[in-house]
Amino acid sequence: MIYERADSQLMRIMAPINKVSEAAAVIQSGAQEIYCGVMPKTWLKNYTNTASPNRRQWRSANLEDFLELKEVVRIAHDLGGQVHFALNEFYTSSQMHSILEQLEQALESGVDALIIVDLGLLNELRKRGNPCAIHIGTGGTSFNSQTISFYREQGADRIIIPRHVFPKDLARIGEKISLQNLEVFIMNAGCKNIDGMCTFHHGVNELLKGPTWHYLKKFNIDFAMQNFWRRLPLPLARAMARSSIFGHVDACFLSYDIQAASDEWRENQKAQAKCFVASTFDLLTGIDTCGACAIFDFAQTGINLFKIVGRNFTTQRKINDVTFIRSCLDFLEKALPSKEEYQKFARNRYQEIYKLSCSDNCYYPE
After folding, report:
1. How far apart are the first and last CA of the chain?
2. Which of 111, 167, 220, 240 has its CA 20 to 30 Å from the CA of residue 67?
3. Distance (Å, whole) CA 108 – CA 241
C-alpha cells in the first residue's frame, strides 16, 4: 500500500508545555499547537492537587498562573502557533465557580481553544455563544460515531479520540460519519485504563510526601531514573518499573492479575491480550509509549491531528518528541512511501533521536 494524501491540509502536532520558556522551543521544533493547564493556589488550598482542574495532578506539570498563560499565548501567536487550554476534568457543583473563574481568565489570556469533558461546562460555553474553539478531551470517551455526533451537535469543534481506538476502528467509524477534526494520541503515557471512566486518585504521593515529591517531579529526577531503566535489559527494567521505589499510591502501577473475559477469543488471542495489557501497567509507560508506526494507517483514514502527551517531561524530551513526529509526518507527506518504507523510516528515526531501538510499548500494536 502506498500512502495517498487524504487532503491538502498539513498534518498538525499538538504538544505539551508546563513552562513559558518551552512555548517557543516546542513550536520551533515543529508543533503548530501547544496545550497546557494552570493549577491556581486557591484551587490547591480548597481541593488539593489530587482534584486537578486539568487531569495533571502534579503542580510542576502546570503553569504557575494566568500571567504565565498570557505570555505563552503571546509567544505562540508571534510564531504562528495556537494555545489550547485544558479544563478537562469532571467537576462537582462546588468546584464550578472556581472553574468558571479560570475559564474567564483563560479567555482573557487569548487562548485559541478549550479542552473540556464536563457536560456542565460545555453547556455553559454554549450559553456564552462558544467564545473560542471547543475541543472534547479523551475523557469524553468518544468510542463510536454516535458519541462523536453528539458532541458535534453540542458545538464541539474538535474531538480527541481515546487511546483505545485503533486506525481500523476509526476506518469503520468513518463509514458512518466524517472523521474531520478528530485528533489521536501518538506519543507517551499509554495507559490501558479509560480516562473518562477512571476513578483512581492520582497525585496522592505529592499530597502525602509534600516538598519531597514535588521536587522529585519538578527537577525530573523520576524521569531520569525511568530513562535509565529503558537502557537496561527489558525483564530487569520491567521488574524495577513495578517495584515500590516511588511508592504504589497511584493504582495504575499496581501489579494486576489480568484475565481475558471474552469467550469468543482463542487461547492464543487471550494470551496476547493479557501480555499486552500487563506490559503497560508500570512506570515505563509514563515515558515510553510510541504510536509513530500507526501514523500511516491513521493518515489513510484522513486523520491529520496528532497529540503528544507529557506535560511534566523535560524540555529536551518534548523537543525530541516533536522533532521525531514532525520528521515522520514530513516523510509521509513528501515521499509518499509504502507502509513498509514508512515504518522502516520511523523506526530508524526513533533510534537516531532517542538512541534506543523500539521497545514493546506500542500504542497501536498490529
Report:
1. 16
2. 220
3. 42
C-alpha cell at position 204? 496522592
The span from the CA of 225 to the CA of 356, in Å, is 16
DSSP label of 63? B
Tell me the three cell numbers of residue 52.
486537578
Q: Which residue has the higher pLDDT, 180 or 59?
A: 180
Q: What is the largest CA-CA distance in the chain?
A: 56
Which structural domains are found in the chain, ordered by start?
Answer: 12-201+287-354 (3.20.20.380)
pTM: 0.90
DSSP letter at 275? Answer: H
Here the cell at position 308 is 503528544
The band of 63, judged by pLDDT with boundaries at 50, 70 and 90, is very high
Per-residue pLDDT tens digits for 166-176: 999 999 999 99
Q: Looking at residue 3, what is its pLDDT?
A: 60
**What gap in Å lies between CA 23 and CA 72, rounded to an integer?**
6
Q: Burial code of 325-358, b = ≥16 C-beta within 10 A, e = fewer?
A: bbbbbebbeeeebeeebbbebbeebbeeebeeeb
User: What number is the average pLDDT over the span 327-356?
Assistant: 94
At 252, the amino acid letter reads C
